[in-house]
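The records we work with from here on pair a chain with its fold. Here is one such record, which you should read through line by line:
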Amino acid sequence: MKKNIFIIFIIFIILILFILILIYTNKNKTNNLSNINLYSYNNFSTYNSNYNFSEDTNFSYLNSMYYKVIYNYKEYIKYKNIWSGILEVSENDFTNNFMVIIISENESMNGISLGKVYIQKETLYIGMEKKFISEDQNGTSILIDNSMNEKNIEIFKTIENENYYHSTFNNIKELPKDYSLEQAKSDNCICNLNYNINLFYDFIENTNNKKDAFIRLYNYEDNNITITDISYNSSNKKFIICIDETRNLNNNSNYNYYEYDTLTIENISSNNLSFSNSYIFSNSNINEKEFTINI
């Protein structure tokens, strides 16, 4: 009898371990492909062709980037003949892979390349990062293993390290979709560049004194909500800005990350405008589009 109980106990332990392994494996399906061999990519230019990709209805648009998912060699050849710089692959490569072509909308987004790829909640996320590549290379072609093929795909602007100091605030990606103005005020956000505006000036003072600092902006306009995190890291003297537009009606943007090393303040009160200063975040090393706050 005791022997049977012991065997049942061992089987129970094995089942528990098996379930835990399955849970861990599924949880870690969120992969950063820079560490595993599930993709290859290159950068190319569309400027050697007159083809207008913005009018191609087969392309989707998100975060100032156009993208197209290709599942077969015939369709690949169509675009390869338009842009010869696209990654060179064979028909056999499409047996176990698919391709994503990403093209920046305008010059401010040129010079981006693949930064990270991962899966989260049945969505394939492809983060595009500003890198030191030729500015005329406005396209990226990525061959990805079919194991990463999900029913949803999101292309976004990223930086090397998305983790940033955010004081006692909740992670911006964990805010509820119905995050209201009242909640934002309660959480000490700066709302519509009016409510809690003193926190903005405290932020500027802290950065001038080389102290870590963080603010969250909440802007509500025409039924669109934009939430912006601005973080300053005193150790590397860099600003990280994350812009969350997932609550906007046009749905053409989600979370986008930018890194800056310079904050310039311009006095424009003489222009008879409703604001007197422009706070301009810029990057002296790469052609990152500027972020401006007018107060």
